[in-house]
Amino acid sequence: MFCGFNEATVKYYEAIGRENTKTAHQANALLYTEGIKEPLEALYFALHAYFERLDSDLLHAKRRCVSSAYNDARFCGSAPIKEYCYVRFKLERPGGKNAPGFFFDASLDGYKYGLNIYNMDARGMEKLRSYMLDNRSFATDIIRKFNDARLLKVCGDLYKRPNYPDENDILREWLEHRRISFVQEESLNARFFKPVLLDDIRASFDSVRDVYFMIKEAVISP
Fold first, then answer.
1. What's the domain count of the chain?
2. Is residue 1 part of a domain?
3. Is 123 a member of any domain?
4. Is 89 part of a structural domain of the chain?
5. Residues 86, 79: contact at Cβ < 8 Å?
6. Residue 106 sits in a domain of what CATH number?
7. What DSSP line would sit under the chain, residue for residue?
């Protein structure tokens, strides 16, 4: 059962922040187990049950959804140990491109959760825009419902110049994004250390579920 993160979470990342080496990780193995591995796996299993009801296409093995302790040595040789952790459920896509997925990330800087489109390229965003323009009323209703919930924020770079000045205000806000994601960011507040964190995450995922299915339909279309 997920009970939130704990003091060992903070102590482990503080230790790795002071010395990012495999030796430091091994020396703080108990902190890692108690503060990262156990709560992260508990969160994974709780969310696995959630996504089993939402969309089984998102389900993957734990090793693909839960972060490990080690960075990829090909890219992070000077920092072999992750100073963050995550749980991610992504849609399987050819080459991993334009894959909508739900996520939870945490580090000493804070935590965040929401819906992202992983490895998104211009083609993926163009397909999403085309879908919204072909289904204006449907997309507007979904965006309005998302806005009313006020649990996640729309993030991503905007075009410097308006490209859709004649569209309705609700639809235009999303169309003008070069990239788009839906995120809530927090400091390591009291809720991070309590079971209620799971309720926060689930409620936010509920608020963006229709957006997920719209993106899924858009990106998998020919």
1. 1
2. no
3. yes
4. yes
5. no
6. 3.30.930.20
7. ------HHHHHHHHHHHH--SHHHHHHTHHHHIIIIIHHHHHHHHHHHHHHHHH-GGG---HHHHB--SBPPTTT-TT--B-SEEEEEEE---GGGTTEEEEEEEEETTEEEEEEEEET--HHHHHHHHHHHHHTHHHHHHHHHHHHHH-SSEEESPBPSS-S-TTS-HHHHHHHTBSS-EEEEEE-S-GGGGSTHHHHHHHHHHHHTHHHHHHHHHHHH--
Question: Residue 2: inside a domain, yes or no?
Answer: no
Question: Does pLDDT of 222 surpass 80?
Answer: no
| Window from 26-40, 73-87, 184-198 with minimum mean pLDDT | 73-87
Tens-digit pLDDT profile for residues 152-189: 999 999 998 999 999 999 999 999 999 999 999 999 99
Which range of residues forms the domain containing residue 146?
Answer: 7-220
User: pTM for this structure?
Assistant: 0.94
How far, in Å, are 4, 21, 81, 193 from residue 211 at the CA level?
27, 41, 34, 29
Task: Read off the pLDDT of each residue in 45-50 and give the average, rounded to a whole number.
Answer: 94
d(CA 11, CA 9): 6
How confident is residue 132, by pLDDT bands cut at 50, 70 and 90?
A: very high
